[in-house]
Design a protein that fits this description.
Blueprint: E1 2-6, H1 10-19, E2 29-33, H2 36-46, E3 50-53, H3 62-72, E4 77-82, H4 87-95, E5 98-103, H5 108-156, H6 161-172, E6 180-187, H7 193-198, H8 203-220, E7 224-228, E8 235-240, H9 247-262, E9 268-270, E10 274-275, H10 280-292, E11 303-304, H11 323-332, H12 335-350, H13 357-378, H14 384-390, H15 410-436, H16 438-449, H17 456-463, H18 467-478, H19 482-498, H20 505-511, H21 517-528, H22 532-539
Parallel strand pairs: 1-2, 1-3, 3-4, 4-5, 9-11
Antiparallel strand pairs: 6-8, 6-9, 6-10, 7-8
Helix pairs in contact: 2-3, 8-9, 11-12, 11-15, 12-15
Length: 542
Amino acid sequence: MKVLLVDDEKHVRDAIRLLVNWKQYGIETIQEAQDGESAIDMVNTHHPEIIMTDMMMPIMNGVKLLEWLHTHAPDSKTIVISGHDDFSLLRHTLKYGGTDYILKPIDPEQLNEALDKAIQAWNKDEELRHTNRELNIEMNQIKPMYWDKLLSNLISEPSAYDQAAEQLEKELHLSRTIRECRVAILSLDTMERSVKNKFSHNLDLLLFSLINICNEFLINDQRGYAFRHWNSDNEIVLLLWKDQSGSEAFLAKINEGIRTALHTRVDFGIGSSRSFPTDLALSYQEARDALRQRNLKSKETWIHSTLKTAKTIQPALTFSQYEERIQLAIRSGSIDQIQDTIQEWMDAVKLSEAITLEQLDHWWREYRVMKRRWVQQFFSNISEDQVKQLLLDEPSSLIVPLDEHGILSLSLWQQELTRSIVHLSKLLLESQQKDKSVIFEIAEFLQKHYHEDVSLQDIANRFYLSREYISRKFKQEFEVNLSDYLGQIRMSKAKILLRNPHLRISQVAEMVGYQDEKYFSKVFKKLEGLTPNEYRKTANPI
């Protein structure tokens, strides 16, 4: 905290310095000025919290200084120290925010009381300012989410408009006289791969940037508003309520803005002009259909409507037609046979004049169902959780394989499909080998007896093998030593137990096979990078 002493008499400033125990009040800096003008320079430069000023000074007196402070430094607290017992000066002090008026000669007790009062007033105001800052930050963070939710709901529940009409007119300039509106959708599903890779770890930042660019154009023209659709992770919805006929041209203008800022363009689907708000859902569905039915094999336009979507005349091609051939290739374990089978599928796909997102999604869902069925057939007697574990390499939703220009890349798709099926074939071969290998019996034994005092000699005696043979084969199969493997199991179980706040660290250690708590903690930190207690705190945040 800083204090500024303003008085044209140096001995008065020196006296004030001596009469106050500044450290007691947390005051680290004491500055001085000999008149009002000098004080203004000091306030502008250093922003002191407390100002003690005389009233009668040359150049600029205290009366003028108080008026200036009231306007330009309202947060500072001012104490007047004057040699004039004048009611008009006292009234002026109170009018312009002074907290106290002390007469010279200065009484030490009065001075310290006045300072304490001023500091308390400043602290109280600062606490309020801090609260208001936090509220403003929170409101600025919440407001976009509020509009996202409200406008998303408006598409499915147009009756919600009546309650929000006043806010929409005030905040988004959506006039109550608007009778028609068009919906456009910006989808990330078919954005250029290089841009998606750049934002792969922060998709929210990409969506935030795109929404801001769209709204720079829309809000400036009071033409509409862009928001993140709550019912889709990859959709930005644009409501266009002004100049319906020029919407496509305006979307092209926005796309140029996106190209300038992010060095890429995006696909827009746009619905027809519909009654607002009752038929927003119809326009939204048209925009969505336009995106899903566009031809991904070419890039003739960035703005898509249902009037310009791809029309396929060839017979419907299904992935399930190739199920038996792919399944036999998987069982063969031959990478060449798998590649040949996938090539047959891709050759059939290439004959299609147009490929839409809707078709890709259908093929992907077929493949997901088939792969789950294969896993259940190949790996008998496994639980549903184990099935899910084996399918972890598959994405939870369709990822469209695009080249650098946003056009469907059949070669990338072929590579990814081949990789996925080869991976499954390898898992099948590994599973078959596991059934015959005593090493996996040992691994299963460790899974069940990790909490016991298990040594390599105990395992050698149990399975009638030498310790050297077990160590060598175990390392070959699992790429870790048997002791490290056992330690990983124990640490995995320990992390689960540590989530229970009612178990002591020593109890957890004993439950996973360690009698020495300190040794357990040492091993845990070596493997996990945290002590058990630190891990517990991160796993169970307050």
